[in-house]
Amino acid sequence: MPIRSVLAGCGGYLPDRIVSNDELSRTVETSDAWIQERTGIRQRHFAAPHETSAFMGTAAARTALADAGATAADVDAIILATSTPDQAFPATALRVQAALGVTRGFGFDLSAACAGFIYALSIADGMIRNGQATGVLVIGSEVYSRILNWKDRGTCVLFGDGAGAVFLRAAKVSDPDTRGILSTHIHAQGTLGDILYVDGAVGQPDKPGHLVMNGREVFRHAVTRLAEAVEEALAANGLTHADVDWLVPHQANSRIINAMGKKLHLPPERVVITVDRHANTSAASVPLALAEARTDGRIRNGDLVLLEALGGGLTWGSALVRL
Ligand code: COA
Is the pTM of this model over 0.70? Predict the structure, then answer.
């Protein structure tokens, strides 16, 4: 009997500190009106010094395990997507493993920028299907506030900090309509690496690294690539727009999100939006949005949910999941 990855639980974590557009406009030459009109963002959460990617990822993972009715003993793999790891090594995933008290299996970090969670979900699904793991925590955790260039108003107003996690459980399935990940598709185009990147890293001399972006180019590619990804996911499963109950998109910009919702012919109330309150939390944005809509009861068991994201690399992808 084939094995499928069931999304058994979700969780999120956001730092306490909320920073409004007005507060930002006291130190950056910007305005609430400009940010809201161009991006839909009203506020973001910024991490305190102790709120690292491992700290926030651990908190989100605990909630996801509790939501699944699982414990640390059920976890045999942790895949953590981040561009802002606590250390070059050990992997942030292993800091989370230790904090949770998981004593078996394996873990690693994955770098695919804002598409990191979709990439991690895809790898986890493959490992579950081929029997390498049976209980996988997939986490996106980011502290972009530490890599923003506060002199660049075109980027520093767009991002926030946070973490989201899901717990995947291996299940034997015979009915194609039962719960689980139906498909994932991931893509990359390294030749577009210079339109969104961090200009440094621990491996580079005297370069702590700040985020750099050509916003217009990213916008243009996002609309095209994500539309392709949506069609690819539906075609691979023999489904149409009408079959999708929810779109949980990467939360970078409400204009991109609305364009995707229209493409799927989904009414706005079927598109989960958190960008207004979280801003862009990169790899954390999709699992945070999913956790919010699960927790408040909007997304229910049996619903067909389309996840999609695009990020620096360029990287992009989709996942189609029956909750
Ligand atoms: N506040 C006020 N004005 C700002 C500003 C800010 N925070 N940031 C830029 N501006 C100004 C620019 O200086 C420019 O002024 P000028 O015309 O006098 O030169 C003007 O606004 C337009 O700038 P531009 O960069 O062309 O704006 P835009 O309409 O492309 O919007 C983004 C900028 C970033 C909102 C938009 O390009 C975008 O959303 N891109 C995609 C970003 C994204 O999704 N990234 C993450 C992917 S994972």
Answer: yes
